[in-house]
Amino acid sequence: MTSPQGKTVIITGAAGGLGKAIAEAFLATGANIVVCDVHPQRLASVNEEWTKVYPDKFLTQQVDVTDEAAVNALIEAAVAKFGRIDILINNAGVMDDFSPAGACSKALWDRVLNINLNGPFLATKAAIAQFEKQDPTGGIIINIGSNASYHGFSAGAAYTVSKAGVMALTKNTAGFYGDKKIYCIALLLGGMNTNITDAFAQGINMEMLKKVQAAASPFSPEKQVPIESVAKYCVFLTDKDIAPSANGSCIVFNKNWPEA
């Protein structure tokens, strides 16, 4: 397998949780890493930690992925520091509160769709513009999807629609840009121990949650997908032989929960 050593990887929402694990997996291969996050305290902590181990191999930037100008500035900063970009991983995301359509507030709907779907779209758009003009052209986009991308009863309406949209964005991007050596792949992940559950602070729609839980086998800690395993898979998918073959694939990676 070819190593991504020397490649430049942008990862959104990567100052903690899954995104940070992915970043560290790529750093261990010798890749250059650009991470963004909306949380300045998390970014400061990452800066302090990585400066001791990976000096000059990373860049951090505070970015709201729903802000097109900020996303474009992130791409520009990455190119200014490392000369080009090779890989984009659209990881930034939030959970909803399990509200079905009839109980979902417009504010929650807008927030979840903005971060989970508009964010990957804006980052994809900006990355493709850079992929097409650099020499050699080409690049790889990995979108972080979910069981909810294909299973309609895993979360609330907003999260479910957002992750189904991520799968559609992946396939459409792969179809159009594959012949330009720009490849797009999605990982459809199961339950993980991550920091995506901010929406729960406002409460949970218990009626919906109970119905979702009743429709599937019980979830337990041993069914969690280790974030380190997801990170290793992301590195694997960027291999020069694997990425073209996986183009357009939406790969279920969920420790068989819910059971196939």
Automatic annotation (TrEMBL):
<dbReference type="GO" id="GO:0006633">
    <property type="term" value="P:fatty acid biosynthetic process"/>
</dbReference>
<dbReference type="InterPro" id="IPR002347">
    <property type="entry name" value="SDR_fam"/>
</dbReference>
<dbReference type="InterPro" id="IPR020904">
    <property type="entry name" value="Sc_DH/Rdtase_CS"/>
</dbReference>
<dbReference type="GO" id="GO:0048038">
    <property type="term" value="F:quinone binding"/>
</dbReference>
<protein>
    <recommendedName>
        <fullName>Short chain dehydrogenase-like protein</fullName>
    </recommendedName>
</protein>
<dbReference type="InterPro" id="IPR036291">
    <property type="entry name" value="NAD(P)-bd_dom_sf"/>
</dbReference>
<dbReference type="Pfam" id="PF00106">
    <property type="entry name" value="adh_short"/>
</dbReference>
<keyword id="KW-0521">NADP</keyword>
<dbReference type="GO" id="GO:0016616">
    <property type="term" value="F:oxidoreductase activity, acting on the CH-OH group of donors, NAD or NADP as acceptor"/>
</dbReference>
<comment type="similarity">
    <text>Belongs to the short-chain dehydrogenases/reductases (SDR) family.</text>
</comment>
